[in-house]
Amino acid sequence: SGLLSRLQTSAPTVQTLASSKSFSQNIPSCLWKLGRLNHVAIAVPDLEKAQSLYKDVLGAQVSETVALPEHGVYTVFVELGNTKLELLHPLGEKSPIASFLQKNKTGGMHHICIEVDDIKAAMTELKKKKIRILSEEPKIGAHGKPVIFLHPKDCHGVLVELEQA
């Protein structure tokens, strides 16, 4: 009984999340709100092959290809019900997707896109919090809405796109 009583008295107290104060109370209030996941973007070396996989093999609804010269990409959206996949393929020599595919020959996840209710307020607050934004001003994204990208080194290795909801 000596060892058991020493273990019981010396064991640290662990407080579970359920018994602690509400987790959301620790999150400071913002002038803007993070919304739903809009899409996950996947860089693909062969756009037609990728479209065929999602449409013909998996049976998803797949959009037409759209060129976005300002972003240096061709995009195709795959509807999933609760969100979308964005298939990205390089458009032009200076495409960020071309350099991504040079490092990742078979393609792969490029970024996630999350909606925000006020992109300008988000930019102001994120800059104050030392989160780097990859452009000075929002650009118009694939859905015709303002978007910004956050530096992956400030977001645990993930390129994050914020889109005005």
TrEMBL record:
<feature type="domain" description="VOC">
    <location>
        <begin position="36"/>
        <end position="165"/>
    </location>
</feature>
<keyword id="KW-0413">Isomerase</keyword>
<keyword id="KW-0170">Cobalt</keyword>
<dbReference type="GO" id="GO:0005739">
    <property type="term" value="C:mitochondrion"/>
</dbReference>
<dbReference type="InterPro" id="IPR017515">
    <property type="entry name" value="MeMalonyl-CoA_epimerase"/>
</dbReference>
<dbReference type="InterPro" id="IPR037523">
    <property type="entry name" value="VOC_core"/>
</dbReference>
<dbReference type="GO" id="GO:0004493">
    <property type="term" value="F:methylmalonyl-CoA epimerase activity"/>
</dbReference>
<keyword id="KW-0479">Metal-binding</keyword>
<dbReference type="GO" id="GO:0046491">
    <property type="term" value="P:L-methylmalonyl-CoA metabolic process"/>
</dbReference>
<dbReference type="InterPro" id="IPR029068">
    <property type="entry name" value="Glyas_Bleomycin-R_OHBP_Dase"/>
</dbReference>
<protein>
    <recommendedName>
        <fullName>Methylmalonyl-CoA epimerase, mitochondrial</fullName>
        <ecNumber>5.1.99.1</ecNumber>
    </recommendedName>
</protein>
<dbReference type="InterPro" id="IPR051785">
    <property type="entry name" value="MMCE/EMCE_epimerase"/>
</dbReference>
<dbReference type="GO" id="GO:0046872">
    <property type="term" value="F:metal ion binding"/>
</dbReference>
<comment type="similarity">
    <text>Belongs to the methylmalonyl-CoA epimerase family.</text>
</comment>
<dbReference type="Pfam" id="PF13669">
    <property type="entry name" value="Glyoxalase_4"/>
</dbReference>
<comment type="function">
    <text>Methylmalonyl-CoA epimerase involved in propionyl-CoA metabolism.</text>
</comment>
